[in-house]
UniProtKB/TrEMBL annotation:
ATP-binding among keywords: no
Alphabetical list of Pfam families matching this protein: HIRAN
Entry protein name: HIRAN domain protein
Lineage of source species: Bacteria, Bacillati, Bacillota, Clostridia, Lachnospirales
Residues annotated as domain HIRAN: 4-57
UniProt-listed Gene3D superfamilies: 3.30.70.2330
GO MF term list: hydrolase activity, acting on acid anhydrides, in phosphorus-containing anhydrides; nucleic acid binding; zinc ion binding
Protein origin, superkingdom: Bacteria
Coiled coil: none
Keyword Transmembrane helix among UniProt keywords: no
Alphabetic keyword roster: Hydrolase, Metal-binding
């Protein structure tokens, strides 16, 4: 399974990104009731709460990193991630392999229950 990278955006509306460093652990949480984006995934940092969102627009996604819409079905309700690179244009992060594997197991389990 290859790494999945995404862009953390919107940090200027919360705490900025000065505190984010390579290796900083963050959490992703789906926000299905978000009035602006049905595929919204908020990003939180322990002790601060919400620090931004996974980018979901061609204007905010950096390079080949994935948008919220592209990773939405690859994660469960929550996932762990970490910062890989902080730039002036956004922050690149990667989803933990364990979060991806755990979600795959849940999907397979629910598919097996449907077949029974």
């Amino acid at each position: 399974m290859s790494k999945i990278y995404f862009t953390l955006t919107g940090t200027k509306h919360y705490f900025g990104n000065e505190f984010l460093k390579k290796g900083t652990k963050i959490r992703l949480e789906k926000e299905p009731d978000n009035e602006y984006d049905k595929e919204a995934i908020k990003v939180t940092y322990e002790g601060l709460g919400k620090i931004g969102y996974v980018a979901n627009s061609s204007y905010t996604v950096i390079g080949d990193s994935m948008s919220a819409g592209r990773i939405y079905d690859k994660i469960g309700k929550k996932a762990k991630a970490k910062v890989v690179l902080v730039t002036d244009h956004g922050t690149i992060c990667s989803i933990s392999k364990k979060s991806l594997l755990d979600n795959q197991k849940k999907i397979k389990k629910s598919e097996a229950e449907v077949e029974e």
